[in-house]
TrEMBL record:
Pfam families associated with the record: Glyoxalase
Annotated PROSITE patterns: VOC (PS51819)
Gene3D superfamilies associated with the record: 2,3-Dihydroxybiphenyl 1,2-Dioxygenase, domain 1 (3.10.180.10)
Protein name: VOC family protein
Length: 143
């Protein structure tokens, strides 16, 4: 049985540039580095940067992205910091909670989000998506 997210691995085209972005701009903790990769961390998250010359630097057209939690107090300062660093933005926020959607140097789509699943579900109960059904009334073990 799966117990949670283990780690993220991002294919990168320039390891030094990506390492600087995650360490210096986003303030990840550098844990280890080697010729073709690096391990970084945030509390509860392990990130691997892996050099891969096949990686395209163009962001994919779909909505796939990786969201990081941030407090509402830190959010405006974080956004101002990324904008000052001229970090690319890829989407405006259209959902519950403050979010800032930005790109890393290799075009990986990232998000800083205030809130969690509980706050998202509460907002959706107020304004549900078309056809949305909530499953909290099901019996345990029911399919």
């Amino acid at each position: 049985m799966l117990t949670g997210l283990n780690h993220l691995t991002f294919a990168v085209t320039d390891l030094k540039r990506s390492l600087a972005f995650y360490r210096d701009t986003l303030h990840f903790q550098l844990e280890a580095e080697w010729e073709r990769g690096a391990y970084l961390s945030l509390p509860g998250l392990w990130l691997c940067l892996s050099f891969d010359p096949l990686r395209s630097t163009l962001p994919a057209a779909d909505y796939t992205h990786y969201a990081f939690s941030i407090s509402d107090v830190d959010f405006p300062h974080f956004v101002a910091h990324l904008r000052a660093e001229r970090v690319g933005e890829w989407r405006d926020n259209h959902s519950e909670g403050a979010s800032f959607y930005f790109l890393d140097p290799d075009g990986h789509k990232l998000e800083a989000h205030v809130g969690n699943l509980t706050s998202r579900l509460a907002a959706c109960r107020q304004r549900p998506h078309a056809g949305m059904q909530f499953r909290d009334d099901q019996c345990v073990g029911e399919t």
